[in-house]
Structure formats: C-alpha cells, structure tokens
Amino acid sequence: MLAIALSLGLGLGLGLHHHAAAAPGPEPAPATSSSSVANIVQPAVGSTWEYPLGYTLTAGTASSSYHFYSVDLVNTEQSDIEAIKAAGHIVACYFSAGSKENYRDDAGQFPSEAVGKVMDGWPDENWVDTRNAEVRDIMTKRIADAKSKSCDGIDADNIDGYTNDTGFDLSEADGVDYVKFLAKAAHDQGLAYGLKNGGDMVDSVVGDAEWVINEQCVQYDECDVYKPFTDAGKPVFHVEYTDDDDATTVDPTFKKNACAAGGQTGFSTIIKHESLDNWTVAC
C-alpha cells in the first residue's frame, strides 16, 4: 500500500534537501533493540523512515508515520532532536564526511593540501582527502557534536570518494578504512553508524554499521548488493528520486519499480523529490 505524506510548512535548510505534519501512513516499525555494541540503537529491518534534509524538522512537524529520521546535524536544534526521540523516533544526524562545504562553520579548518576538486553538481563543496589526519580530526569533532546534541547515530555522507574524480588517488581500500574509522569514532561516543551508499564496500563493512541509507539502487540496478544488511538483521533505508521536483503524483510504472524491483526484499523504501522536500511516497 502506498501512502503519500504531504507536510505543512516549509523550513528550507542549506540547499541540501524538507517536511511537516504528515498524513496518516504506515505504522512505525517495531521497537528498537540494542546492537552488538552495548547501548547503541539498532533499528529493525522494515523500519519506516523519512529523509527531511531539505527543511528543518521540529518536534511539531515530526510524524508518527516514520520511525527513523536523518536530520541535518547543524540545522536541527538539540531541543527538537530530544523531543523527537522522546516521541519514540530514532534520530540520526547528517553531515558530509567526504567534502568541505564552504558554508559550514568549520570550513576553514580543512588543510589546503587535503581539499580536492569541486563536487559535480555542488559548486560550494570540494572533495577532501579522507586519509588526512586533520580531516579525520574534523570528523571526530562533528561526531562529538552529534553526541552533544543527543543524536542516536550519524549519517555520514560522501564516504565513497574513490568512485569519483576527487583529485586524490583514493582506492576502495581507503574507503573501507575510512568507514571503519567513522564507525569506531561513532561507537566510541555511544552512537550508531550508518553506511551511506558505498555498495562496493558492503561486504567489508556490514559488521561495522547499524544500517545503510541508499539512494537510487533501483535506478542503478544495484539493490542486491545491499542484501547483506537485511540478512544481518539491519535495515536498508532506500530512496528513489522523481525526475520532476514539482511532481505531486508518481507515474504508476515508476512507483511499481521503485517499490518492488528485484533485490530489495525487506527494504524500507520511499520516493521523494531530489530536493528532499516535504513530499514523500512511502511503499
């Protein structure tokens, strides 16, 4: 069954991606259990989720239809994170772990030798050398900030620089090492870690992450590579994007493929505008 959740009220963030009171949708997933790392949350396979990076989620706009939220670490108030958690949701906090965003307060801390090429499609961001110790120190500080703001875990983006033209000679092994670094840094703070895309690395890091967020595995015909997560009792939070950010309906064929294409049994799938605004279709 498909539920279309249209939220009221916009609160655009820093050009990433939106939400408010949603219409009735699927019931929240089963209660959270502890992961193998003591006291770290482990969402259940099939948990409902929403991805409000294009606007600022507040306690008043969070919906009981969604069990798991990934919110912007900087733009979301600690009081809202705590209130959303008190209402029974899991809250992961998003930041880019593989790029320098020129509008962030810590942008000046990146050493020049670790700042690479501009990210395609994101003129205010540059890839960074994730092997660099100072870059890792910045990310460790961001993870500590996530802890201080009461986040349950982290959604660390752009960890697969080795698949892009970064300006650095990064390898898949470098990517795996960086994911393991981020996961340990999160776990050391008592936070969960979620892989972001990085399908090539799944077999090497599924044991280090509590979930994976995947964008467009149907479009790229790679959903099956994320199956080790559901096999391990860990959710795959999956989103497919529409071609039209102004769309208010979804083509039935697109919807059928997005929600039921091969390889995504057990996935938690939603359809959104690429701007990640407050329009969501939940499978």
Description:
The chain has 283 residues and is α/β, with parallel strands linked by helices. The protein is 21% helix and 24% strand. It has six helices and 15 strands. Strands 1-15-14-13-12-11-10-6-5-4 form a ten-stranded mixed beta sheet. The chain has a three-stranded antiparallel beta sheet with strand order 7-9-8, with no helix packed on it. A two-stranded antiparallel sheet has the order 2-3. Helix 6 (252-260) links the parallel strand 13 (236-241) and strand 14 (268-272). The protein starts with a strand and ends with a strand. Residues 1-36 have low confidence and may be disordered.
Query: What is the rounded Rg?
Result: 18 Å
Average pLDDT, to the nearest integer?
88
Q: What is the percentage of strand-forming residues?
A: 15-25%
**Largest sheet strand order:** 1-15-14-13-12-11-10-6-5-4
Strands, count: 15
Contiguous helical run count: 6
Using the alpha-carbon principal axes, give the shape: globular
* Percentage of residues assigned to helices: 10-25%
Which consecutive residue ranges, at least 5 long each, have pLDDT under 50? 1-36
Q: Summary?
A:
It contains 6 helices and 15 strands. It is α/β, with parallel strands linked by helices and 283 residues long.
Write a concise keyword list for the protein shown above.
283 residues; alpha/beta; ten-stranded mixed β-sheet; three-stranded antiparallel β-sheet; 6 helices; globular
